[in-house]
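Handout, section 4.2: multi-component inputs.
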Amino acid sequence: MNTKKKLTGSPELLELLNQTLELEYTLIIYYPRIASAIQDKETKQLAQSLGTASIGHADTVAHAVTKLGGTPHWSFGSFPAEMDLKKIFKAQLEKEKLALKLHQQVVGMITDFSIRDEFIGLPKEEELHIKTVEKILARLS
Amino acid sequence: MEQVDNKKKILIVDDEPNVRRLSRTVLSKKFIVYEAEDGKQAIDIASAEKPDVILMDMMMPKMDGLTACYAIKNDPATKSIPVIMVTAIGFELNIKLSQQMGAIGYVTKPFAPKELLDKIQQILVTP
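Output:
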């Protein structure tokens, strides 16, 4: 008898994961574009590193959706028409804070340990991202 | 005498030495092959050598392939170089992400040598 149980996530959890995924995709797509407009080399690298980190997060979330029987959705927020770096980074800060909140909620809702383990470190990483965006904003002031 | 000048140039970007070695083995008979182990190196080599095609891994430390692809496609000196993204995961979504960053195509790891050659040839003959 096959005792291996197929994992399924609640609709609420899958919705939350897909909401998180959309946010991570938005961050992935935004950061290289923003970085291309930054002149200072070190600040540019900081912005690029945030994009790189978001790829890892999106990967973890997309895998979790699939493992839980859902379908990862493709969508991302539209890019602002005006390239005002300060305004954009203020918006990025809010996105990173929202990402932290969503990852914390996800950790609280996932009951499967193998998937939960992959998410445990993400809120801490988001806290670092928030600090990095704040550092960039301080440089732009 | 080998006519090196007629050979097209391919830049392989991957943080895994085994993948670079395998790709070099497959491609070096037909192409001049350059290697980079992260996105930053890829941007530097693309700028200096102007390869005809870039094979870019998506997930890399230091600078990922998507960021490097965007930077290459956003630089007037390198924007015409076709970039093929290499993704290990095979998620449909990663392909869409690659398109957003300006990549012309993708291959999924692990890839067969013929698949890689066909993909590059197909891009090189496209005007």
